[in-house]
Amino acid sequence: MICAGIDAGSRAIKAVLFDTARREILASGLAAQGVAQERLAADLLDKILKEAGLDRKRISGLVATGYGRHAIRFADTTVTEITCHARGVHFLAPDARTILEIGGQDSKVISLEDGGRVRDFAMNDRCAAGTGRFLEMVAARLEMNWEKLAELGRQSTKPALISNTCAVFAETEIIGLLADGQPLPDVVAGVQNAIATRVAALAGRLVSPPVYFTGGVALLPGMARALEAILACPVQVAPRPQHTGALGAALSITNDKFSMTNSQ
Amino acid sequence: MNGKPAMPHSDNPLAWFAGMMDHCYDFAQAARAQGRPIVGIMCEFTPREIILAAGAVPVCLCGGSGATIPAAEQFLPANLCPLIKSTFGYHVTGNNPFLNWADLVVAETACDGKKKMFELMSATKPMYVLELPQKSDNADALEHWTAEVRKFKEHLEQRFQIRITDGQLRDAARLMNRERGLRRQLAALLTRDPPPLTGRQLSEFKSIISGIEEDLQQYERAIQIFGAKPASPPPGLPQVRVLLSGVPMVHGAERVLELIENAGAVVVAMENCTGLKPILDDVDLDDPDPLRAIARKYYHLPCSVMTPNARRFDTLRSLAAQFHPHCVIELVWQACLTYDIESYHVRKLAGEELHLPHLKITTDYSPLDSARISARVEALFETIRARTPSTESIVSTASTASTLQAPVQTAHPRRTP
């Protein structure tokens, strides 16, 4: 049986095709998020189907997740990104007990039981301070892309102190630090620390090892290290960190797609 | 109806309470025409009985609309609880007729935000402030509070040129006890599985003016109608039963309650000032000093301004035992420091003692984060359902209690002041 998962995130749409018999990913893809997200998701699905040499009729079930999940009306059902990331990471890394997920507008900490079920979770409220949006804002302010940003951060010897409570205030602080002539690498490393501190505060009592880091921000070199330093425990980047949500959505469909909220 | 023409909606209690604001408007207008003063209250610590005994009309003035907040922020900091800002915003805009009519506003030194807001409001509004001590198990504190309530009574006597007798205090307490008792009976119907009404429906059964006879009759009718409703589970997945705790959800600010129930749950009990918190205890009518009995009932309200606030945790234990929730969701208004910090204890109680998942939602009156709140609530329910076979009811123990038990107080060590 072939199942599909679509993760309509705030900055990107991700899709995964999963073969339940062979227990493997057949294809996956990513597209930038936009206004017409249902069409963008459908185009992405068709693109990865084509890559896998399949068509839509072969799909036995389709689950949408992510903040835009309700906009994907061609999905059979929706499951929240918290449950989906838990399922996706557990499939790829069965030893995971804690998941840190930092996406475009969210950060989450998910604590797993044996068997991969969600034990508890925490998610940021309104503020973007602990999310990818903050990094994007900084990259735009410094007129550089993410890869360059990460490379700069690695060169820092003395990360700047940047407040972690508000992305808007932090931007003002960054402008001030640059005006004061603070080295760019220290400012970038300071931003990474601010995000990591915010996520660590969210994590609170939930962190128990092994800790896996997923979501788009996990691709940024330096972020896992910043999290390790603040949480004082090893943090591994999950395999395919941008796709664990979509994979978990696809995994939400088992043999009986009508009992999918109970499947593991 | 004693020969009077039936009032519209009189057979349908839900429809009656949907018109609650209009009824209160008419009631207050009529009372003013008879020369009865309007007394605004903004907190459940204010003893309505004293105001009723003075022949005045106590009206709750707490704001539940985000629309008045920008006006309030001309005077108040943005980083303040939306309930306080909304209430003060009505004062600034003049959009709350009850506040405009109020001959007196009663305030108390509950939380710092309200306390300092009242100072601003008192510049242009007659105000009386009750000093609320905050160690709930300190006998001296209760003495002080009783003296405060007595001074308040004397203030009303002087201001309105009346005498308030013990008999009038007892009558007012009897009326308020009856109202609290009826609202408790209605709330107790949600101990059933499945409940005959939703938490959102139950939240409609309230009035910003207490003791209106027609309201009390409608509560009685609602108890009959919903009490007789056969238990039929709604279609779809079994409902998750939620114990909602935290800040008051003022009329118009029920968004989070709706988000929770729209995600496939029923809020079976609300441990907050707009839910069960103020109606679980009655005034002891046998006390030889009715004023003291009234003061005692109000002083023991388990608000997070109290320290330590053990009564709140006793209440949560008691409600969990009676309503069989699957989880505790806690609502905290942004910048409500006392509830926000106390959430640590609620989470601990839920996890370690009640063995229930706990979710805290911090928000304000603007709806922008509704999708984010829904995601967390849905994820919580997915987690709960994943633990329970879908073929069975997710409720393990059905309760048939028809009356609510007030929480049994565990021994709180008395501290020497």
Give the spatial strand order of the biggest sheet of chain B. Answer: 2-1-3-4
Total beta-strand segments of chain B: 8
Oligomer: heterodimer
CATH architecture of the domain at 13-169 in chain B: 3-Layer(aba) Sandwich
Helix content of chain B: 40-55%
The CATH topology of the largest domain in chain A: Nucleotidyltransferase, domain 5
The proportion of residues in beta strands of chain A is 15-25%
Give the helices and strands of chain B as they follow along the chain: HHEHEHHHEHEHHHHEHEHHEHEH
Count every helix of chain A, treating DSSP H or I runs of 4 or more residues as helices.
8
Give the ordered list of helices and strands of chain A.
Answer: EEEHEEHEEEHHHHEHEH
General form of chain A: globular
Strand residue content of chain B: 5-15%
Largest interface, counted by CB within 8 Å of the partner chain's CB: A-B, 19 and 20 residues
Count of helical regions of chain B: 16
Task: Please characterize this protein's 3D structure.
The complex is a heterodimer of chains A (264) and B (417). Helix content of chain A is 36%, strand content 22%. In chain A, helix 3 runs parallel beside helix 5 (167-179) and helix 6 (184-203) packs across helix 7. In chain A, strands 3-2-1-4-5 form a five-stranded mixed beta sheet. In chain A, a hairpin with a 5-residue loop joins strand 7 and strand 8 (118-123). Chain A contains eight helices and ten strands. With 417 residues, chain B is of the alpha/beta class. Chain B has a domain at 13-169: Rossmann fold (3-Layer(aba) Sandwich). Chain B contains 16 helices and eight strands. The longest helix of chain B is centred in the middle third of the chain and has 23 residues, at 166-188. Classes of the chains: A alpha/beta (264), B alpha/beta (417). Chains A and B meet through helix 2 and strand 8 of A and helix 16 of B.
